[in-house]
Design brief:
Helix 6 links the parallel strand 6 and strand 7 (about 155). It is built from seven helices and seven strands. It has a single domain (about 1-165), classed as 3-Layer(aba) Sandwich (Rossmann fold). The longest helix has 13 residues, at about 20-35. With about 170 residues, it is of the alpha/beta class. It has helices spanning about 15-20, 20-35, 45-55, 85-95, 105-115, 130-135, 165, and strands at about 1-5, 35-40, 60-65, 75-80, 100, 120-125, 155. The chain has a seven-stranded parallel beta sheet with strand order 4-3-2-1-5-6-7, sandwiched between helices.
Length: about 170
């Protein structure tokens, strides 16, 4: 299965990212241990940390990059889309079977909404900040982004709760 992890970009030492670094690395390890491919936007921040964890656990990491960026050192495979950030995000989401969101700013919000519109399973890792937490009060019945109820959006607060999605 192709598991996309979306979330904050930026220097991994930034306080907002550093606070969740252990979760990110452990998530990458878990995805690799379960035998899944990790897809990210291939850059820094959450993308780098989950890729580090997956790489350390012997997993396959695929970075789907905007423009012609080099990406982080933990990508086993990089796909330089030549596209801007928003268009690259659509390639990332369309390539995923499952999307896990950790923190994040406007790009993450765009990816959550895109995944929902594409009918992809989305899991919000609560307590990680950003749009992952901010979008929750907007959910209809705590599960849907709109009245079409395209696909349920799930919420977890611990890595162990991801087992059912990564089986």
């Amino acid at each position: 299965m192709n598991v996309a992890v979306i979330g904050y970009s930026g220097d991994v030492e930034r306080p907002i990212i550093k606070r969740i670094s252990d979760i990110c690395v452990a998530l990458g390890e878990l995805i690799a241990q379960k035998g899944h491919n990790l897809l990210t936007g291939g850059r820094d921040g959450v993308m780098e940390l989950v890729s580090k964890g997956a790489s350390q656990a012997g997993g396959k990491t695929i970075g789907i990059l905007p423009f012609d960026e080099a990406g982080n050192e933990y990508n086993n495979l990089t796909i330089n889309t030549g596209m801007d950030y928003l268009m690259r995000s659509l390639v990332l989401i369309r390539s995923a079977d499952l999307v896990i969101s950790i923190g994040g700013e406007i790009g993450t919000l765009y990816e959550i909404i895109s995944a929902y519109a594409c009918g992809k399973t989305v899991v919000l890792f609560r307590g990680t900040g950003g749009w992952t937490d901010r979008i929750v009060p907007s959910l209809i019945d705590g599960k849907f982004l709109d009245n079409r109820r395209i696909v349920e959006i799930f919420q977890v607060t611990a890595l162990e709760q991801l087992d059912r999605f990564l089986a």
